[in-house]
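Researcher: Re-running this chain for the archive, since the previous output was lost when a drive failed. Same request as before.
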Amino acid sequence: MKKHIANSNVKYRRFTAEDAAAAHALSLAAGWPHRLADWQFVQRLGAGFVAESEEGVIGTAMCWGHGQQYASLGMVIVPPDCQGQLIRRQLLSQVLTEIGDRTILLSSSPQCLPLYEQLGFTPFGEVRQHQGTVIPSQITLPVPGDRIRPIGASDKIKIAALSSRAAGMPRGTVMAALLEAAEGGVVIESYEQVVGCAVLRRFGQGYAIGPVIAPDIARAKALISHWAGSHAGAFMRIDVALTGDMSPWLSEVGLMPVRDVVTMARGEPPLLDKNLHQYAMINQALG
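Model: Regenerated structure tokens:
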């Protein structure tokens, strides 16, 4: 039997580094795959709030700024009782005040759509989460003159620029932190010009691939195949937009669809570059 928590006994305060362990325990209870290290990573990059009762931390919500115009919201966990919606609303109110006058992006489960729509968010896309034990796939470079190689120190500024173009908003801070924490990263070059990249990092039960940025889906598949080939048999997760034929292809290499979420924005969504695409997200919170 779930214990009822009176909303009058709940206090709200800023999320600190010391709250990561309690947040991790909440996410494990909710069935999330995040490790403690995954919480620590997103906490260092952003800001957030916790709901706290006499029993300790019972809810979280976080946000991340992307330049002066955009922000993203995520890592929202609330109690699964009748007070959960009230606590969720209060946590979201704190985060929305923190973000201020920016376009806000988030990923919502279907059951939370009505609440976010009441708060002014509008759906503009869908993301599908794939995961599983990866099967090696042949790396086929679609264009003569292409090659895949590890990311070098001189590539980091180029990758930040590629990521910002593909996302339609500044991504330099996020990409710098991601590359610092990554298990590995590769770029795809076309005649010595960097045109795409793919990052692999530890996440949950295994690894997460993302972002994967490329000018076309053939090159994106080549980048993903690089990690599939070098980590055959490993458990991986990848989150992709439901456009094109990427999702069916991922199933063929052992990464099966497990969950869909709706991408939403309060304000105008970012204007994406038509010549460069983000085929895999960093994750649902950071985008």
